[in-house]
Amino acid sequence: MIKDLIIKEKVIRREIVLLGILFLFANLVNVYAIVVHQGNWTELASQFHVVGLLTLFLYAVSWFGRGLFYSIRAAWRRTKGAQS
Question: How far is Cα 47 from Cα 21, in angstroms, rounded to an integer?
Answer without folding.
Answer: 18
